[in-house]
## 1
Amino acid sequence: MAVLGSVGVATFVQAVPTKAEDAKPIAVGKLIPESKVFDLEGKETTTLKIAQAKPTVFIFYRGGWCPFCNRHLAELRKAESGLKELGYQIVALSPDLPVEIKKTLGKEELSYSIYSDSSAAAMKAFGVAFELDATTVSTYKNNYKIDIEKSSGQTHHILPVPSVFISDAKGTIKFVHSNPDYRERLTSEAVLEAAQSALGR
C-alpha cells in the first residue's frame, strides 16, 4: 500500500490489532507523531524532533533477528547517497533494545541512524503496530531461537508492519508505504523516487 499526496487528518493512537493485515498506517498529510524513542546510548528523543531536523525517511523494521529486515536495511544503502544529496536523513526504528540494535549495526555496517522503539510507542502512533499471538511467539522461540521478549526487553509481543514514511523538514508526511507481507519490501530505487517526488522533483 503506497500513498503520495496531501490529506490533513488529526493524529490519534489506534488500538493494536492482532493481525498485520489490520494495521492502519497514518495518512499522508499528517504530522509525524511525537513518540518517545531511544538512541543507541539510551538517550530519549521523539520521532517528531528527529523529523523536524531535516526531511526524513523513516524505516520501521521488525528486528535484527529478521533476515528480510537485515537485507532491506542493507539494500537501502544503495539509496543513501542520493537521499543525502536531496537533503534527507535515513532513520530506522526497531522494537529491539539499543544493545540488540548495536549488533545489527555491526553485522550490516550501517551508517544511518537507528532508534529503539521497544515500548512500541512509535509503532502504535504511526499505526503500524500489531501483536503476535502466543502460538507464534512460542514457535519463534522454540523452533527458530528468536526470543521476541529478550530482543525488546518487553512482554507486549508487538511488532511493526515493515513500513516506510517520508516526511518534509516540517515533519509533515508526504509518502507512506506499508506491506503486511514482511517478505515484500520497497526497493532502494523506489524509496529514492518517492523521496524525490515528495520534494516536487
Note: The radius of gyration is 16 Å.
## 2
Amino acid sequence: MKFLSTATTLIMAGLFTVISGPSPGSEFKDPKEAVDSLWKMAATGELLTKEGWNQASRLFVDSDQLFSNKTIIVVSNYYGADRPIIQGATAKIIVWYSGDAGQIDSSSLRFTPAPQTNTAKTPYLYTFVLAARHFTIIDQDGKTVTKEMTGSPEWTISSPRQPPWATVNTAIRYVLEMRSKTRDPVIQSNADKTVKALLHYQ
C-alpha cells in the first residue's frame, strides 16, 4: 500500500489557542489504539474529506501535509494489527490486510487495479515515537504568542505518511455519491465501471 493537517483552533477565555498537535487528553495509551483509530477512519470515509484528514493529523508527528484527494488508494475491507514492539521511545506495529484493490482518480472516477500478488495477506509497517506535543497560545491579534506549553508524551506515527485512502466498501459508497453529483456521461460511465470492478474485491 503506497500511501495529516492544520493546527486546531479553540476559543477560550478571550484567547485564540492554536494547538500544534492533538488537544490535551487525546493521547493514546498504546500505538495499536492509534492504528486502530486511523483504519476505522479509513473504513468510514473520514480520510476522504479535508475535515477528516485534519482530524487524523493528530495521529502523526508531522501534521503539515496539505490535503489532496486527487488519487484515492483503495485497500481490502479486512485488516488487523499485531501487538506493537516497543523499544524505549520508539515502537513498530504491523497491520495485516488482504491486499490493495487499486486506486481511483477522483476527478474522473476511473479505477486502476493494483498488480495482482500471490500473497494471502499484505503487511504494512508503522513506526511510532513517544514525544511531547507543544501547544502555543496566541492573542486575539492572531500573531502575538502569549504562552507556550508542553503536553504529556504521546505515541504518534513518524512514518509513513499516507495519501487519502479507503476500504473497498467505503470507496464504493464514495464513487456512487460522486456519480450522483455529476451530469458528465463519461464520468458516470467511469463510475459504473469502477463500482463493478470494486464489487469483486468485497
Note: The first strand starts at residue 8 and ends at 12.
